Amino acid sequence: MKVLITGAHGKVGRAATQAMINAGHEVLTTDLTRPGFERKPAGTPKYTMADLTDAGEAYAVVRGADAVVHVAAIPEPTGNPPHVVFQTNLMATFNVLEAAVRFGVKRFVYISSETVPGFFFPERDFLPDYAPVDEEHPLRPQDPYALSKHFGEQLMDAAVRRSDIQCISIRPSWVQFEGNYEVNLGPQIRDSSVLSPNLWSYIDAYDLADAIVLATESDLPGHEVFYIASPDNVGGHDFAEILSKHYGDQIELRELSRPDASGISSARAQEMLGWTPKRSWRDYLDSEGKALNT
Question: What InterPro entries has UniProt attached to this entry (predicted)?
Fold first, then answer.
């Protein structure tokens, strides 16, 4: 397929681009980074700079694509004013999806977020009703980032009602790659009480990229939603033990797939997409959260 990847120069976009090329697809990319004019290495995908909040620029980059992977977004709500986060993310999604519908794109993969239930940036305290959290858990977004992602998923619902497009929304957990495992996850490995706004969940960027390829190639009808998280938790702790230690009986503990399970379940993605995660924090860090010498 000819696949357009938006936000192609971010950590998720880069991993998804390479995974899509490896899968044999023709890849088109777009982002806000200014293009260079040096000779490109063989196999470099075509790149077009575009501001997707502008409908005309969105239409220009979507035209001719068979599938769209929409990664582009302001990735969290703390570095920009709330209205900028919300407007940028929602209008970019609307414009790209609207263009995809008008041009007859068959598959749209939307990168949503684990924050939509309320994780990470709540302005008031948030605890999930139960764990591991799955796709049936109620959504209670508070911050402008999570709210924009929640509304983006509703745009997918609307698109499949009015066209033949097939949509998949992916809610990744906290995305890690070789450059940030130690700084992000090291403190949690040493102390399970440190910075765990998502029940000790994470996802490797390259495992996420594999899920994005499977979603793009899928023939699932309508609009499906999947959490994508590594099956183990940060630090490999006994999940039932640390949940009880830090939250008492405030969060209902449901059946675990393994003792060191993640606080977010990806069972649905594994079953319906055939996704198999291959990487763990253990491939990058030792038991003290220090980078391995590889």
Answer: Epimerase_deHydtase, NAD(P)-bd_dom_sf
